[in-house]
Here is the input.
Amino acid sequence: MKDVQKNLSQLRDTIQKAAIACGRAPEGIDLIAVSKTQPLSLIMDALAAGQRHFGENRVQEAQQKFPALRQDFPDICLHLIGALQTNKAEAAVELFDVIETLDRPKLAAAIAAAMRKTGRQPRLYVEVNIGEEPQKAGILPDALPEFLMECRDRHGLPISGLMCIPPQNLDPTPYFTHLVRLADQHALPHRSMGMSNDYKTAITCGATAVRVGTAIFGVRG
Ligand SMILES: *Cc1c(COP(=O)(O)O)cnc(C)c1O
Here is the structure.
């Protein structure tokens, strides 16, 4: 069996066990295969193993890889998990099924305009700077209520989830728990959190999607 297929099958097993161990339904957790910088051959291996959710962090790279793959696999669900520039908002709305990194008012305006223009309605998540780290993107937890209101009332944007990347080298549990509490407070069903190193913890804390790259495809070149 190919590495990617073996890794995916192990991950699915671990995800299932982690879900059951905390009394959650395994079907409530999507595995997003983060394929940034990975070659088409490995993405094809993942597709052959039944993987359909993919995450990319750059619009241009995703544009080069995914339209062709979609011809054969129209049920691919493509997530944007990296920073989005306003001048790429229209391209992102055209290509992605989920935009997980809405993090500022200007981008909300650009995405709203792109959705009106293209008629496309990708799912939208707000990225939260859950560790309040100055170098990180995302809306600060305290500013979230106002930003969500602005997205909804000013731009007509339906936000359905939150996404976060907790601080490195710290126990992620309190950060994941905080994100879930914020999502609960605002009745947002999707919680995207957890990567190769901490996806099990994220599931225990209530993730509905984990974003895993290295543990599927190996170390990025
Ligand atoms: C790269 C990336 C991931 C995947 O990280 P791994 O450690 O390779 O699993 C997840 N989320 C985001 C936002 C990323 O940029």
Q: What stands out?
A: Residues 34, 36, 57, 81-82, 165, 195-196, 211-215 surround pyridoxal-5'-phosphate (CB under 6 Å). The first strand starts at residue 30 and ends at 34. The two ends are 22 Å apart (CA to CA). The mean pLDDT is 97.
